[in-house]
Specification:
The protein has about 160 residues and is α/β, with parallel strands linked by helices.
Length: about 160
């Protein structure tokens, strides 16, 4: 599958924070990006649903909650990158979710993605990745590559890159 990457331009290093999802209790297994500019917040790849508690703790440690997020930027839709997205949208219904056009149908209806993952990890899916809830279509902002997104005074350039 081909999905965009996001290039965060004109940034100060303290505008990007890496949150550790502590997937399966392992440090530095899955990283979540948190971008901040002028009081606006975007998350890059929230990780799997199984790490939601840790993600909430990481946000609280920074004085934030899911309601403080303005945008979710998905680099691709695999469960270890985007599985928690639907749950976060349930918590914050105004959350805009930016996703490539090829991944959008799987974010709206993750059933095919879940069936495929179940074949790889039979009877382990819930433990490894937690619940992957659908994201309402009205929350999606469809990307193709080449777009420039604004986050406060910062620009996020969407770069289409074939491959994983």
């Amino acid at each position: 599958m081909n999905f965009p990457i996001l290039r965060y331009t004109s940034l100060l290093m303290n505008s990007i924070t890496t949150l550790d999802d502590l997937w399966m209790g392992r440090p530095r297994s899955i990283a979540v990006g948190l971008l901040e500019s002028d009081g606006h917040h975007a998350m890059v790849d929230p990780g799997p649903g199984s790490t939601l508690d840790t993600l909430h703790q990481q946000l609280r440690a920074r004085g934030l909650g899911v309601g403080d997020l303005d945008a979710m930027l998905l680099t691709h839709i695999h469960l270890d990158h985007a599985g928690a997205t639907g749950a976060l949208v349930r918590e914050n219904p105004r959350l805009a979710v930016y996703v490539h056009k090829n991944g959008a149908p799987h974010v709206i209806d993750p059933s095919k993605l879940l069936a495929s993952a179940e074949r790889l990890w039979p009877n382990e899916l819930q433990r490894l990745f937690g619940e992957a809830l659908p994201v309402p279509a009205e929350n999606l902002r469809i990307l193709e590559g080449g777009e420039n997104l604004k986050l406060g005074s910062r620009k996020v350039e969407v770069v289409y890159t074939p491959g994983h």
